[in-house]
Write a structure and sequence with these properties.
Keywords: Signal
Oligomer: single chain
Number of domains: 1
Order of helices and strands: HHEEEEEEEEEHHEEEHEEE
Largest sheet: 15 strands, mixed
Protein name: Lipoprotein
Shape: globular
Helix content: 10-25%
Distance between the termini: 47 Å
Strand order of the largest sheet: 8-7-6-5-4-3-2-1-15-14-13-12-11-10-9
Number of strands: 15
Structural class: alpha+beta
Length: 247
C-alpha cells in the first residue's frame, strides 16, 4: 500500500505544474536566439485548448541539415505573439535523438537531454538558480516533441502492419523518461495513438493522437508544451504545412 501511494504521488507530481521562476537575461537571450528562423519553415500550428473556441498559442517548426546532422526547432508563441517556449532537437534522418534543449519562459526553466551512443540519457534542469542532474541507462528509442512525429513517420509501415512500438519520452522538465507505446488507431495508418505504457501514468496523461494527411501532418490532440494559466493543458493542434512533406 505504501509503495502504491508513492507511485500515485509521483504521478500527481507529473501532472502538476512546477513552480514558475523567471528566466535570467542570458536565458531570455537564448530563448530568442533559438527561435531565430534557420533552415526550412516546415509548418505553422494553431493550438486550441480542449473545450476552448479560439487558439491560445501558435507553433512554428524549422528544420536545417540533412543525414546524420539535423536540427529541428519548435517555437511556441502565445495569442499576443510573445515567445513562450522553444525546443530544439539534434538528431539524424531516422529521428534518433542526440541532444535536446528547451527554454521555457512560462516556468523559467532551461532543460537539456543528452543521449549517448548506447542510448543512455543525461538530464540537466535549471530553474530559479537551482541546478539538478539525472541519468538513465539504455532502453527503448528516445523521442521528444520535435522528433516524435518524424519518428512515427519513419516507422509507419511497421505500425500499419500491427506492430506496437515502445519508446521513451524524455520529459526534460522532470529529469526522467516515461515509457510510451505507438500504435495505429485506424487501418490505413493516418491516425497514430501515442499513449503511456503504464495505466497509472494514463491517470495523468491521456492518450494522444497524431493525424497525417498524405506526406504531411494534419492534426495532433493531446498534451502540449506551453502552460495555460500556469497549468499543463491538452489541446487540439491543426497544422498548415509549408513544405510538400513533413520533415
Amino acid at each position: 500500500m505504501h509503495r502504491l501511494a508513492l507511485v500515485l504521488i509521483s504521478i500527481v507530481m507529473v501532472a502538476c505544474a512546477s513552480a514558475p521562476a523567471s528566466l535570467s537575461p542570458a536565458d531570455r537571450a537564448r530563448l530568442t536566439e533559438l527561435a531565430e528562423p534557420v533552415g526550412t519553415h516546415v509548418y505553422d500550428g494553431s493550438v486550441v485548448p480542449m473545450g476552448a473556441d479560439a487558439p491560445a498559442f501558435r507553433y512554428e517548426r524549422w528544420v536545417r541539415g540533412e543525414g546524420e546532422s539535423k536540427q529541428s526547432t519548435h517555437a511556441t508563441y502565445d495569442a499576443s505573439g510573445a515567445l513562450v517556449v522553444v525546443q530544439r532537437a539534434s538528431h539524424d534522418d531516422q529521428y534518433r535523438l542526440r541532444r535536446f534543449e528547451e527554454v521555457h519562459d512560462q516556468t523559467g526553466a532551461v532543460n537539456t537531454v543528452e543521449v549517448d551512443d548506447d542510448g543512455s540519457l543525461h538530464f540537466t534542469r535549471r530553474r530559479g538558480g537551482q541546478l539538478e542532474t539525472a541519468s538513465e541507462g539504455p532502453g527503448a528509442p528516445v523521442v521528444v516533441g520535435p522528433t516524435l512525429f518524424g519518428f512515427v513517420r519513419r516507422h509507419l509501415d511497421q505500425l500499419v502492419d500491427g506492430e506496437v512500438i515502445e519508446v521513451r519520452f524524455a520529459a526534460a522538465d522532470r529529469g526522467k523518461s516515461y515509457a510510451f507505446e505507438l500504435s495505429c488507431a485506424n487501418a490505413d495508418g493516418s491516425i497514430v495513438r501515442f499513449a503511456p505504457k503504464s495505466a497509472l501514468v494514463c491517470l495523468a496523461i491521456a492518450p494522444m493522437f497524431i493525424t497525417f494527411e498524405g506526406a504531411g501532418l494534419l492534426r495532433y490532440e493531446g498534451r502540449v508544451p506551453p502552460r495555460l494559466d500556469g497549468d499543463a493543458v491538452d489541446a487540439v493542434v491543426d497544422y498548415t504545412m509549408l513544405t510538400e512533406r513533413y520533415r
